[in-house]
Amino acid sequence: MPLEVFPMNRFCVFLTVLVSACVYGCSSETGRSSGAGAEHSSRPTAESEASEGQLLSLVKRGNDVVVVGSFSERAPRMMDLHLKWDGSLVVSDAIAGASSTLAEKTVRLIPEDGGARLLVFSSENVNEIQSGDLAVLKLQGSASTIEIVPTPPMLAPAEAEVGLLLSDPLKL
Q: Got the DSSP string for 6-20?
């Protein structure tokens, strides 16, 4: 019986994220869906870092890696990030950071080959996630780098993703 529960839990997470994205994230304040018009620059330049914008970065703090968001324009209501690393790294836990907790969001980590999918969402609210620590990843094993892979859509609503920059891979 326990083997049947795990796939159902994964299916429930998928449905929750799908419904949250469609109901809460897809519509703008004017009620229109903006679709795939979001522009991405996968890595910030010195010039773009100096200007205000949307930035997702990874920061090492002790044995943990923290996903940090800086949102100057429009804060997201949901995040779907793909992380990639090399080596034998295992993320043993993902804990909601201060910004996610303040927005009353749930943090889920779904293992993938050579990485993981990090979801920050709520099926109960449309609170915006403000700048700050989004998730704390507890690491075990070894790797030389970890990075956020640009796989749009990563933020909802789509307007929150316009001009989004990702930091360089974090060297561990």
A: HHHHHHHHHHHHHHH
**133 contacts 8 by C-beta, under 8 angstroms:** no
How far is CA 66 from each of CA 31, 94, 109, rounded to the nearest angstrom? 33, 9, 13
Q: What is the pLDDT of residue 132?
A: 96
Global confidence as pTM: 0.70
DSSP string, 131-145: SEEEEEEEEES--SE
Task: Give the pairing of strands 132-140 and 64-71.
Answer: antiparallel
CATH classification of the domain holding 83: 2.60.40
How far apart CA 99 and CA 123 sit, in angstroms, is 17
What is the phi/psi pair of residue 86, to 5°? -110, 170
> pLDDT tens for residues 3-20?
344 444 544 444 444 444
Task: Tell me whether residue 128 is in a domain.
Answer: yes
- The answer to whether residue 15 sits within a structural domain is yes
Nearest-angstrom CA–CA distance, 13 and 17 = 6
Instruction: Give the closest residue to 65 by CA, choosing from 139, 165, 160, 156.
Output: 139
Q: Which residue has the tokens 């890595």?
A: 43
**Total structural domains within the chain:** 1
